[in-house]
Amino acid sequence: MNTFAAPLIDYSALGPILIVVVAALVSVLIEALVPRGARRFLQVILTFGSLVTAFVWLISIRNTRVITGDGAVAIDGPGLVMQGTILLLAIFGAMLVSERSLDSMGDSFAPRASALPGSVDERELAARGHTQTEIWTLYLFAVTGMLLFVVANDLLIMFVALEIMSLPLYLMVGMARRRRLLSQEAALKYFVLGAFASAFFIFGAALVYGYTGTISLPEISESISATTGETGLILIGLAMLLVGLFFKVGAVPFHQWTPDVYQGAPTPITGFMGAAVKVAAFGALMRLLYVGFSGMQWDWEIIIWIVAILSMVVGSLIAITQSDIKRMLAYSAVAQSGFILVGVAASTAAGIAAVMFYLIAYGFVTIGAFAVISMVRDSSGEATHLSKWAGLGKKSPMVAAVFSIFMLSLAGIPLTSGFVIKFSVFAAAIEAGATWLVLVAVGASVIAAFFYVRVIVVMFFSDPTENTATVAIPSAFTTIALAAGATITVVLGIIPAPLIDLVSNAGIFIR
């Protein structure tokens, strides 16, 4: 007779995840039990307190290397680095969400998401100063999913983490205060396409289980190594799993949601998604390939090559045609995913370190860039059309200069973090023999530099007109997030060695 044995769980190693998920559950109780007038203050305190506490806890367990939860969760060096990155980006992203000084109507979120856009009910709620405090509950659940996603060691936990991360994001995308219809359209597209991607992932997991008899990544690797003969089923399963993850990183041809969601979502959520979701998705992608399917490197490497090339070229070329700043940065994010995949294709310890370094630096550039976008406004709210930025460098030279730093970093110009991170992934790929892939990446970088520099030219080499936007004065929240993004971008471009040592010492994924 078989008896049930409770799995051994290392609660200390899972501390950061548990802290954030408990905070999310407390946030639900605040929404249910606390009077409306006191909710926002408590939610903000709870969010920042839990994220900072989780980060401090993570530092205290930085040397932990353990597989826990009956093999379902692997706490290792790369996982801890990416968890720390997610928490830091979430803290600065929460600062953007907290901003209430830039818009005369309040924060960036609709007073009630369920109200019909433009209705009398919505106008009355806005006039009374009604705030959508549920955003903080959704935010904490999304962070919980991300933290679990990067350490998931079996396909079921990975899928659960994917959904915990994604479902709150679908809702937050549709909560913009202004341009409500555009925001809701973006949320619907994100949800529908995300549901298809999730279906591909779970169907792929089922096929992999059918071939190997397990959902554990280390056991999948062992089964693949021990099995000879027909591999069609496992290849189809892996391809379906990759569809789900390529969707989350916004790689071509699974990028169609990216421009609409970046443009329609509230700008603080766009910045948070563009930074933290990419870290979580690439963390899960690397663990899937390096731990579960390391024995099939020759099969998935060609897929990574193709998707990387398509993402770099398509993202860079289409970004040139964009006249909206947020859509331009959306296609830029597609191209950046291609550059990161160059490091993934290396499939070495140096490649893992280079990808983590890239994700950290790119995350802070993204947070900073969208902090600036939230400050540039006209009478209708955020001024995201490029024509509104003409002459901004003469009206607000400091803000334009900071945004220029972010653009130069994304272009990979020396003395910014962007140059160092691209050099890192290219060097790792060349060392692994992917020289041709790097040559394509260099060509795509040259193309991408055009649309980044174009923004700088428009800001500094055009005269202000009556249509030129103004820069609103932010509160301390946005100021801190912007200063952190700019400082880290410059510091990593000049003295990157400490962070490079940190990610290099993180090691590889444990099995």
Provide an overview of this structure.
The strands form two sheets. The chain has a three-stranded antiparallel beta sheet with strand order 4-3-5. The longest helix has 33 residues, at 180-212. The protein has one domain. It has helices spanning 15-33, 36-60, 77-98, 120-127, 134-149, 155-173, 180-212, 217-226, 232-249, 257-264, 267-292, 297-320, 325-346, 349-375, 392-395, 397-411, 417-431, 435-460, 476-494, 497-505; strands at residues 66-68, 73-75, 376-378, 381-382, 470-471. The chain is built from 20 helices and five strands. With 511 residues, it is mainly α. Strand 1 and strand 2 form a beta hairpin.
Mean pLDDT: 89
The structure class reads mainly alpha
Helical region count?
Answer: 20
* Total domains: 1
Give the biggest sheet. Answer: 3 strands, antiparallel
Architecture blueprint of SSEs:
Layout: H1 15-33, H2 36-60, E1 66-68, E2 73-75, H3 77-98, H4 120-127, H5 134-149, H6 155-173, H7 180-212, H8 217-226, H9 232-249, H10 257-264, H11 267-292, H12 297-320, H13 325-346, H14 349-375, E3 376-378, E4 381-382, H15 392-395, H16 397-411, H17 417-431, H18 435-460, E5 470-471, H19 476-494, H20 497-505
Antiparallel strand pairs: 1-2, 3-4, 3-5
Helix pairs in contact: 1-2, 1-5, 2-3, 3-5, 3-11, 3-14, 3-19, 5-6, 5-11, 6-7, 6-11, 7-9, 7-10, 8-11, 9-11, 10-11, 10-13, 11-14, 12-13, 12-18, 13-14, 13-17, 13-18, 14-16, 14-17, 14-19, 14-20, 16-18, 17-18, 17-19
